[in-house]
Amino acid sequence: MREAKIDKKITKGRSQSEFHDLSERLLNSGDAYWGNLGFWKCANDYSMACEALAHQLAIKVNLSEHSRILDAGFGCGDQLLLWLGKYRVEFLCGVNYSVSQTKLAKQRLVDSGSTNINLDCLIQGDVSDLLDPALWGEILIKDYLINTVLALDCAYHFPSRKQFLADSYKLLSTSEVGRIGLTDIVLADETLSWGKKVILHSMLYLSRIPKSNIVTLSEYSNQLVQAGFHQIDSQDISEHVFEPFGAWLTSSKVGRRKLKGNIGAWLKYKVTAAFLTWAYRKQVLKYVIISAQARQRS
Length: 298
Ligand SMILES: C[S@@+](CC[C@H](N)C(=O)[O-])C[C@H]1O[C@@H](n2cnc3c(N)ncnc32)[C@H](O)[C@@H]1O
Fold this sequence. Notes:
By secondary structure, this protein is an alpha/beta fold. It contains eleven helices and seven strands. The chain has helices at 2-12, 46-60, 78-85, 99-112, 133-136, 161-172, 194-206, 217-227, 242-251, 253-259, 263-281, and strands at 68-72, 91-96, 122-124, 148-152, 178-187, 229-236, 285-294. Strands 3-2-1-4-5-7-6 form a seven-stranded mixed β-sheet, sandwiched between helices.
């Protein structure tokens, strides 16, 4: 009952101008607001799969009570609650483009009673301004402050992932062990047919993903090395992401019930799921978890 009320409020109050808004709430259960593609190896519910993807990332970068995180693209804050609650991280700050999501994330942290975070450290802004002191205001991102940069299912949306990697290196290179971790989309094959390219580029355009961000894993690794990273570790988890998301969307009664009456959202998720299934089967895209260590600046 309470869930239904929240969903109604979200759909009504949905910002018309924001691409990343609160609409993924419709896919979630309980009081979760996750908005990623999920890791479906052992999950049969959207929120569970999204949380599992976050755990995969946390494991990849050895998240612990010694982690001092900068989280880029933190959505509605579910992952922030996880980093603080489960991994008990030492410090957490983040930047997120969506106004509605950032506002909600802060409110949820207040409601959760989290005392180990300064809400001023969660900034609404563009990751392109990561190194701009004006973005952070009073919270200066000082040397040694951050030892982990995370981007959970969002770097492909950034204006330039290459720039994000370079900026992240600058933040991490003063730490003894500075790590970056991302779950991300890469190109499976450089030599796509004309037909595949047309479909891919149309979907990237509709999904507001810059074409230049969709590169092969080997080009991705080159960009990490150029930025200053080494010890690159990547894992292809496509089989547990692309197809299962679509299968869940088709089979889930909960999802269907909630999306009924919201044709726009239903269409968006259906088209996305169909595209991802196609992209996986035709070997156009892969979904990967990547971590890398920043070379220490001498
Ligand atoms: C697919 S959602 C993933 C949200 C969240 N990480 C999760 O797993 O639920 C992509 C996120 O990237 C953020 N984002 C997109 N472009 C951004 C930018 N230029 N700067 C900062 N955040 C950005 C959006 O606000 C959104 O929260």
